[in-house]
Amino acid sequence: MSDTTTLEFESDDNEISVIPVTDFRNSNGAFEHRLPPASATAPAEEYLLNHADVHLSQEGIRRLVQGAVEPQELNGIRIERHRVETGWLMAISYRAYSPMVSLAIENDRLLAEASYAADPHASGGRKALAMPEPHSEHAVLFHPDDYKDIEESVDRSAKRVLIDNPQEVGERLVERPLMLVPVTFKSETGEPADDVTAVDGNCRLAYCYHRIPPVPRGWVDDSLIGSTSKKTVVLRPSHLMRMPLEHRRELVRKVIKAAYVRLKEPRTGTTADIRDRNKWAMALNALTIPVTVIVGYRDDNAQRGMQRFPAGVRSLLLRMNTGGKVFEDGAKNAVRAEEIINGLYDEGLLGPEAQARPTRDALIGRGDVAASMESLGFNHELPDLRFALVMQQLTYKNWKFNALVRSKLQTEGNLVLSRRNGPIVELGLRSYSASQATNSPRTALETGCLWQDLVDIPWSVENIDTDTKVDELLARAVTGETQATLLLGALGMISLVMSGHLLAAAGSAEADAGTTIARTSVGHIIKGLLAEGEGQQILADAIKRVRAGQTPRWWDAEREELIDQPNDWRGSTYNAQLRKAVRHGWKAKDSGKEKKTEAEQETDKLTVFQEQLGTAVDRLRDLFVLREKHGTTDRLAWAEVEASFAHIEDIAEDLRLISEPKPRNR
After folding, report:
1. CA distance linking residue 104 with residue 102, whole number of Å
2. Most-buried pick from 94, 557, 603, 626 (CB within 10 A)?
3. Angle value at C-alpha 33, between 30 and 35, nearest 5 degrees
4. Dist. CA 410–CA 430, nearest whole Å
5. pLDDT tens for residues 301-321?
6. Where is 372: in which H helix or E strand?
7. DSSP characters for 230-266?
8. Structure confidence at residue 529 (pLDDT)
């Protein structure tokens, strides 16, 4: 975060008032901030230390109480309980000084440039930080990354949110509470071992820091700044994190004093005077925040202790994130996916510990991925193998697995393909986060990267890491071996999608193909390819070619062999031709000589219907996008949509007449 960040203030001629946050009044009867002495925190510390629902160390409690605006109110404060899937989170709510709180450590939804350890090419770049681990005794998140990486993460996160999500902080108080959690670090070079960080409210907190004007150099220790050329310092989140507790409190005291010294100076009435006074008034208004701090956790299974505390915090965070900058679908799927994997690990559903831990680390993809893949018997340098492992692990079908995944997805009913799809896509793409742009592959995979056989039939991932092994896999698939067929399809799909040769069906695809195409999901295209020998050849060749950095070849129906793509083909052309072949076959039939069977005719009619239905869904999504772009919130008049609802209901009713019943949830 640059030390040259400039503070942007409104050019209003009206003065901004300092808003009261306590009942304290000075001799003139006006509200004034007063940082309470450390001695005033002792009763509250003792109360919380002896409370059965507070599971923190004395140092952790001291950090909370000394950051409170009114620590006396914490003496006897009510402990709130929040229900999560595995137990209860205990929390307290009060008002705290914003500089006494640190930003969230890692914020994946705002760090699109983050690369994951799952990508073999990520070693040279900045990796996403590891997920926090449980503390052995307290309701505290342990962050195992190097402290310098954590500092870099919070500074970048603060800089990013100032651009992406401006907040009205300063002219008004922060009104919506931030959710905080105590944390501890792997501290090896003298950094503070403990802190309190935001898990919800990063944007508001970053803007509170932003409203504090540059401070004199002596207020921040030289060891935290680096440069010796500046007389004032723009506070970074990392500066605050490195300060001992006492120094942070002293910084708050100095900011308060400096603000009131400036505000008590005589008014001149000039625009410059008003702007400068407003700057310090906004600093005081941003100096405090309402907070809810997690202080304890009680697992439904007492023997689990704090093992599932991080999962409980993540679960609460996901449900809370409904205001401000909410999680997008991809981010929600990523959080849910990690909850699923951690839940499977916690419940022993990833196998014995020797297998379970590396499986968990490989699937999540944040740290120790190479070693984990090697211990599981896979070549860690091939990202498609890990992606296939994600697919395989999340396509199990048994009641324990299904029940846990449904609970993490907060859904009822069958664990159908579409519900498994999102978490698989987000975890799988981590294998490519440092290597290439993933927007187009994500769009393609989100159409549905699975086909039903992956769920209905048990399969496993083999270490197919050479061309010879790919050829052997193909030979087994040609003989009809189900295991080989499904693995060939999984690896082939990943190769085609990630190389840009199997995409979502584009509007111009028919023009590229010269005829109608199969406008179905990626998974259904792969199922169609696996059903034909030519398609199996395409898939096997794609695996080998993409791994070697080459473009996949095409099947020449006349010569009955693989050939290089025509020079004028693009990825979208290949995609259109692939979808054409899945729909019409690899050899064009002479409609005058070869009449389609009755079954083929019915299949064609169903395909046309499903394509047109998919087009209708796309048009509805276009309407949603347009309304969001225009900021439209008005509901459509019933008269405008009544006919559409009638058509939809008729379609559903008629389709049920010729389809099997929906499977019941068991």
Report:
1. 7
2. 94
3. 145
4. 23
5. 999 999 889 888 877 876 665
6. helix 369-375
7. -SEEPPPHHHHHHS-HHHHHHHHHHHHHHHHHHHTSP
8. 96
Residue 389 corresponds to which tokens in the numbers above? 């492992």
pLDDT at 296 over 90: yes
The torsion angles phi and psi of 133, rounded to 5 degrees, stand at -110, 160
What radius of gyration, in Å, describes the C-alpha atoms of the chain? 29
Tell me the pLDDT band of 329, cut-offs 50, 70 and 90.
Answer: low
Question: Which pLDDT belongs to residue 27?
Answer: 82
The tokens describing 240, both together, are 């605050």
pLDDT in tens, 7-17: 444 444 588 99
Read off the pLDDT of residues 266-277 as tens digits, 9 standing for 90 and up.
998 899 999 999
How many C-beta atoms lie closer than 10 Å to residue 650's C-beta? Answer: 10
What's the chain's average pLDDT? Answer: 87
Extract the tokens encoding 398.
């048994």
Relative orientation angle of helices 383-393 and 353-364, to the nearest 10 degrees: 110
Task: Examine the pLDDT at 592 and tell me if it is beyond 50.
Answer: no
The residue among 580, 588, 589 whose CA lies nearest residue 607 is: 580
How do residues 330-351 score in pLDDT, each as one tens digit? 677 887 888 899 889 888 899 8
- What is the 8-class DSSP label of residue 73? G
Q: Which of 543, 546, 390, 361 lies closest to 454, judged by CA?
A: 390
Instruction: State residue 95 phi and psi, 5-degree precision.
Output: -110, 135
Write the DSSP assignment of 525-553 as a string of letters: HHHHHHTSHHHHHHHHHHHHHHHTT-PPP
Phi/psi class of residue 76: alpha, beta or left (left: φ > 0; alpha: ψ in -120 to 50)?
left
Would you list the DSSP string of 283-339? Answer: HHHTSEEEEEEEEEEEESSGGGTTTTHHHHHHHHHHHH--SSSPPPHHHHHHHHHHH
Sign of the Cα torsion 335, 341, 345, 346 reads positive
List, in sequence order, every residue forming a beta bridge with 31; answer none if it has no partner.
25
Bridge pairing between strands 141-143 and 178-185: parallel
Of the candidates 551, 430, 445, 567, the one whose C-alpha atom is nearest the C-alpha of residue 501 is 551
The number of helix segments (H) and strand segments (E) in the chain equals 25, 11
DSSP state of 31: B
Residue 573's pLDDT is what? 93
